[in-house]
Amino acid sequence: AQSVTQLGSHVSVSEGALVLLRCNYSSSVPPYLFWYVQYPNQGLQLLLKYTTGATLVKGINGFEAEFKKSETSFHLTKPSAHMSDAAEYFCAVSDNFNKFYFGSGTKLNVKP
Amino acid sequence: NAGVTQTPKFQVLKTGQSMTLQCAQDMNHEYMSWYRQDPGMGLRLIHYSVGAGITDQGEVPNGYNVSRSTTEDFPLRLLSAAPSQTSVYFCASSYGGGAANTGELFFGEGSRLTVL
User: Shortest Cα distance from A25 to chain B (angstroms)?
Assistant: First the structure.
């Protein structure tokens, strides 16, 4: 069975500060890993994904994540937070693109 | 571009009533799925379909039925609603199997269901 753990249900940063959202997964097979963002009263949108190849992946809006197999982690980072980054972020794992398992989410607050 | 369309956006039911949440996509996606989102629990997969006529269960299928008679539509049926089914429901689609599949899910805007 696969599972995803997101440490910190709420993260607060100042505008311009580093954003770090943590994601650890468990999977019995090499996983496909995803980060999605959800703005209030909307569906989820893909930020970035790791399927194969380079372990450092870049996504939209300046976000990036690094797949670390030895640590079973896929943490999301952004060098400089913007007010528009305030949203809820979900990490997800899949082994075959049929069943996706989502973490419980991290709400990012950006202070002016 | 319509993408994934869910109806209704809001619904209030009484315990024991039945209803269907509709989901339609216009991207010719083979794969469609239903999730429920509950506070502190993220999204949990209810049912999914890899093509017309093919459905399978996810993590939390009990109390829900699905069918897939066309590529475009994937309705979710609650036969006898219970308060535990109060949630926000999301439909998502993807390209499906083969080289075209990048794994990206395209989500609808959600349907908020309250069961009294």
Answer: 14
Task: Provide the 10 A C-beta neighbour count for residue A12.
Answer: 13
pLDDT tens per residue, range A5-63: 999 999 999 999 999 999 999 877 778 999 999 998 888 999 999 988 888 999 999 99
CA A61, CA A35: separation in Å to the nearest integer? 13
Q: What is the dihedral of CA A5, A8, A13, A18, to 10 degrees?
A: -30
User: Cα distance from A24 to chain B (closest Cα, Å)?
Assistant: 14
Let me know: does B91 contact B8? Beta carbons within 8 Å. Answer: no
Contact state of B103 with A41 under an 8 Å Cβ cutoff: no
CA distance B16 to B36: 19
